[in-house]
Amino acid sequence: MIREISVPTHKHTEFINIGRQVQNAVKEIGVKDGICLVYTPHTTAAITINEDADPDVTRDIMMELEKAFPWNDIDYRHNEGNSAAHIKSSLVGASVMVIMENGKLIQGTWQTIYFCEFDGPRNRKVYVKIVGK
Fold first, then answer.
1. CATH top-level class of 2-132
2. What is the spatial distance between Cα 98 and Cα 58, in angstroms, rounded to a whole number?
3. pLDDT of 39-58, one tens digit each?
4. 0.90 surpassed by pTM
């Protein structure tokens, strides 16, 4: 069973905490133990797990990705103007897997799941799939 999460983004680059929406999807699916796959089908967005206690963590990640791959670099050959977003998406990745036990995601104390927007604002999708019992 798959659940879809809608993620509206509001900035060109942002990290959106979707941990609560993923946990809600896990509850809806009803599988107690297994693996939760969180996937986005967009080539200019990504999914990652990182700290949610200090917002400077995600700001620092976005800042360093932008330094390495600036969105307005004129040397990119892809003519849509979003080559940097494609690169960032490939580096961060389109999915994460999280272990589930007793209907809950097993995460570290400070961890959450983030949707990473690199070419917004847009209306995005995330899919949650559970494999288990």
1. mainly beta
2. 20
3. 999 999 999 999 999 999 99
4. yes
